[in-house]
What we know:
By secondary structure, the chain is mainly alpha-helical. It has helices spanning 2-26, 28-39, 43-70, 73-90, 97-111, 114-125, 128-148, 151-160, 162-183, 191-196, 200-208, 210-230, 234-242, 246-273, 277-297, 302-316, 321-329, 335-364, 373-379, 381-395.
Amino acid sequence: MHYRCSTSLVITLCSLFLFIKYIAQLFPSLIGISLMHDFAFTGLELGILASSYYYSYSFMQIISGWILDRFSMRFAASMAIGLMGLGLLFFPDTHSLLGMCLARVLMGMGASFATVLYMKSAALLTSPRAFGMVSSFLATATMLGAAAGGAPLAYFFHQVSWQNGLEYTGIFTLILGLLSFCFFPHNFPNEALLEKKTSFKQSRLVFLNPQNWLLLAYSGLAFSPIVIIGGVWGSPFLILKYHTSIQSVSYLLSLMFIGLAVGAPFWAYLSMRIQNRKAMMQTANLLAFISLAFIIYAPVTYSFSMGLFFLLGFFVGCFMLSFQICREINPVSLLGLSFAFMNTGEGIVGALVEPLVGEVLDFLKPIHQGFNLNNFYYALLLVLACFIFAGIFLSKIKSQP
């Protein structure tokens, strides 16, 4: 009974961390227009502000995995959550681009532990067969956080102001860090044994495995469109396309995240029934491409686009199976580093594509005018191309049925 309660508590704390991670990651989409108006940020500057999160997130991914393999997971969890809380508190109290970027860097550093912490905890506490289903609920936790970062957070910001809203979220995050320090176990089952095996020489195995590099590229490209559309550029594009408010747009983005939350467990269950995981992942990637293409270019109504956004998230949810492949091809003693290495793909793609979209928008927009719909049609081709390249890398991955 004690072990089961500890397992449930650990997964709950990890899930709350993931929940807040996506609020911290995506809130710029709700205040981007305000920042451009109040601080006269250009499209490139707003893209840099949003992507500064990804710079530290990507840089810290490998370090976070190494820390989780070598040191106490209690220490790692409380430290990471604390960094994110400090970043959330600092962001609304600064009035410069540099200060806001530094706050985003703190958030990214803390967030870099979230996925790896959940995945390693699940790997140590569940059987290999159960891991696929348990790991899929990571997407459920994160996407519920992302959905909360849409309409509910927009409403919250509207009621208390985005500055106060971020401060309240930061205080809650620091409390979560304290709870993690108090209730996270000192050692997981066999954790002490695993730590002894994690030498620098063995760590190199992660980087020398070509399949890990392919998984990094595929997972980053397959998932990043969700983050970019749900982040800083999706909202202004949809406001122009549907001539609607930020609150109405946030409902569409929330449906996308809910679709992923539902889709990830569905694809995990289906993969246990269908003995062709790779073909299933390719099909889902193609359907995600089609869904996003319709969202951007088809003259569909707001009501019809609601279904498209749900389907986009639902199909992208299949990418979560890459974590199961990662567990199969790497030693158990290196799971923290392996998951962290694969998870750098999201940060790398986001850090490259988000500012590039902003640069294209700046280049195309008329002088002394704002962005127009045609500007977005060209710039968002970069996001759509992510699915094409994801399919190419996926075709080269060797996967068990």
